[in-house]
Amino acid sequence: MNKLGVESENAAANFLKKNGYKIIARNYAVQTGEVDIIASQGGLLKQKTLVFIEVKGRAYKAYGGPLAAVTKAKQNKIISAATIYVKENFPKFDSIRFDVVTVVDGKIEHIENAFIPQRGTL
């Protein structure tokens, strides 16, 4: 991973922690895909959500910005890795969500429910 990628993932992880997320894993990779950050949100009195997060960083906004880089093919790889993670770890969560965190020139944007897997995938 390049320097910008590492810095973007670190910034995203810190942002998520400051906003109440618990980081469970980073750079979870399997043969069919990879997830940058796996986190949990909520708990105790709130619904507990398992969140799979793709981080996209850019030095500047170009080519449609970083969110445009999360193509359908990339989404499918993330969903594939998430499916394996859930099967291997049997996490106890009320729901699962797929988010994207973009980091452009130091500015962080968190897009919740950035994409939704096809029914029956997870």
Approximate strand percentage: 35-45%
Uncertain regions: pLDDT < 50 for 5+ in a row?
none
> How many whole angstroms does the radius of gyration measure?
14 Å
Largest sheet: 5 strands, mixed
Decide which structural class fits the backbone. alpha+beta
Task: Give the overall shape.
Answer: globular
Total domains: 1
How are the strands ordered across the major sheet? 1-2-3-4-5
Structure description:
By secondary structure, this protein is α+β, with helices and mostly antiparallel strands. The chain has a single domain (3-111), classed as 3-Layer(aba) Sandwich (Trna Endonuclease, Chain: A, domain 1). It contains 2 helices and 5 strands, in the order αβββαββ. Strands 1-2-3-4-5 form a 5-stranded mixed β-sheet. The relative contact order is 0.20. The model has no long low-confidence stretch (mean pLDDT 89).
